[in-house]
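dumping this here before i forget
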Amino acid sequence: MTHALTALTMPKFGLAMTEGKLASWTVSVGDTVREGDEVADIETSKITSGYESPASGVLRRQVAQAGETLPVGALLGVVADAEASDAEIEAFIASFKADTEEEGGEDADAASVEPRLVTAGDYTLNVRDAGRRDGVPLLLIHGFGGDLTNWMLNQDVLARHHRVITFDLPGHGASSKDVGDGSVTILAEAVSELLKALNVPRAHIMGHSLGGAIALALLRDYPDTVASLTLIAPAGLGREVNAQGLHDMVEADRTRDMQNALQALVYDKSLVGRKMADNVLKVRRLDGARDALRAIEAACFGNGQQSFDLRPVLDAARIPVTLFWGEEDEILPVTGAKNTPDFVVKHLLPQVGHMPQLEKTAELNRLVEAFLEKSQVAA
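structure:
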């Protein structure tokens, strides 16, 4: 009888990552794990994050030891059925490279996907499209001043069971810098054009911060394109905003100043290091980048407050909606969650700041996966 065996491999957190350090195991050999459970902590030059098991079973081997630095794709351990013999485990480890070359696992396929430029109406957008091709895709919309790498801990995990699309909004990352009047209406139009360019008539939409407001504007203006909404600390549900914090993220021009500005995004300030700040500064210094962000800042957060109210859109929604919000959010206060109708499934997260997808990765991925499965059935 053949038993299920699954390789735990060094993940690819970010497009430029080539190796990572196994900081620690968080489970022991012999422990039972579920798909999505954190089994190890992985440290890179940019971030330390939990690594989620891609399968349920028993951790039978820890092939790599805490403290080891290994290339992306290297074997860390093996999860298997409890009934699998030691001989099967050893044979699996010995033939790991041959097996992965022959079978090409989903995680490896997802991690190898590189972004590409897509013409979407009047925009040129930087897009990363990963995962399976059947079913309704999931489109992720990042927040103000971010880019598609904001989803580096989410996209490939969710792409195990879904087609997952990330992209740089106009004015951000490697996308074109023309943002028109910088309004959520214009940015939602760009998202609609992207869906058309990718031949996606309908998608599940997950939006963070300003991306949440854009998702709501998409539902308002192009309702047939939205199958469900996952909102993460969304703008548009109140007037209050840390406008100075957003301004600092646009205008900071030194590493230390940018690091301080970015630390407002998280509860655990150690998550934001100098290299992360340097990477953001490189993008800010591209031609037209700051001017584009200034236009969006003026249109969306002028006069020190949010300039739009999208609560009526959410009140009128007739699709599944779930909400995540960190209780220690320093950018958009969690009180905005009170301005949502009862049908919205809410997850308020203690000791989490403005980026739950970074600070509570495993929990958010697991809950989003369950929400999508339920939404697919409802559809």
